[in-house]
Inverse folding.
């Protein structure tokens, strides 16, 4: 479901911290507050800080509204977080540069907000497996920069899997980067397909087809098209992404695909996941594994040996 109101109308609706506080409270505790320490539902509200604290009437544990959410520790007003969520829930997403100009933050703050929101999107997918009729196919982000079998560092092999419903339509999508240990030059080895199935496919699926070869006669062209759409969206919206953070952008593309299929209110779904997903801290974000440098050295060595 696309937004039923414009961005201006959204800003009018969530125009102060009190309204945003109430919405975040409902998203985090849809059945009412529960103390994280003793599970009691009775509480007092302490309003001496910018955001309220909820003190358990039984054990007196104090819980912040944003603790345990992606917003934990933030100094950015909730009003601006909500605007960022709305813009990320839009079909085409938004870049950090564009977000910073709209909500009036620094680029670094906007960049971190974007990644924390994508972290919630990735979390929403992590516990769901592909079920029913499952198709898995090779894909790629980034075009090859040479005509040889050697893979350029900016060419990222992917495996994409879909669940196909009884109506023949794809209703769930996962697109994952393939780790270097499951690659030989630009080819995915069988262990890569096995790992994808083990991690992302329900053992009780009805039917499974896995294609890891680029030009197999059995390849699923509809899945290949989805990978191309994801690549075009990343390039058009974000001007291209390196391998270090690519997976989070692929997860955002899949999140949008799934919510569109389910005809959900994307903002409401995203707010709920942001309210129950622990934050992604900046040091953790910048320490994400990046095999690009090692792969570049390997690539140059391959070309040197071939010449």
């Amino acid at each position: 479901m696309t937004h039923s109101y414009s961005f201006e109308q959204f800003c009018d609706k969530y125009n102060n911290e009190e309204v945003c506080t109430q919405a975040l409270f409902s998203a985090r505790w849809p059945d009412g507050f529960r103390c994280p320490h003793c599970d009691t539902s009775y509480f007092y509200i302490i309003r001496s800080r910018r955001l309220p604290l909820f003190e358990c009437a039984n054990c007196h544990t104090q819980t912040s509204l944003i603790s345990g959410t992606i917003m934990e520790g933030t100094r950015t007003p909730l009003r601006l977080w909500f605007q960022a969520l709305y813009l990320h829930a839009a079909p085409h997403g938004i870049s950090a540069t564009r977000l910073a100009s709209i909500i009036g933050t620094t680029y670094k703050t906007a960049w971190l907000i974007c990644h924390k929101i994508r972290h919630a999107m990735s979390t929403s997918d992590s516990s769901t497996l592909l079920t029913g009729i499952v198709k898995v196919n090779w894909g790629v982000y980034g075009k090859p920069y040479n005509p040889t079998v050697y893979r350029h560092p900016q060419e990222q092999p992917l495996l994409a899997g879909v669940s196909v419903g009884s109506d023949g339509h794809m209703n769930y999508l996962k697109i994952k980067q393939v780790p270097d240990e499951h690659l030989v030059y630009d080819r995915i080895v069988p262990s890569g397909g096995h790992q994808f199935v083990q991690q992302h496919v329900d053992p009780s699926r009805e039917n499974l087809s896995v294609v890891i070869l680029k030009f197999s006669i059995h390849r699923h062209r509809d899945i290949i098209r989805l990978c191309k759409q994801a690549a075009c969206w990343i390039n058009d919206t974000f001007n291209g992404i390196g391998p270090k953070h690519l997976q989070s952008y692929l997860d955002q593309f899949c999140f949008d695909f799934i919510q569109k299929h389910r005809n959900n209110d994307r903002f409401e779904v995203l707010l709920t996941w942001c309210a129950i997903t622990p934050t992604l801290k900046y040091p953790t974000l910048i320490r994400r594994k990046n095999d690009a440098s090692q792969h570049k050295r390997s690539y140059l060595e391959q070309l040197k040996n071939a010449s």
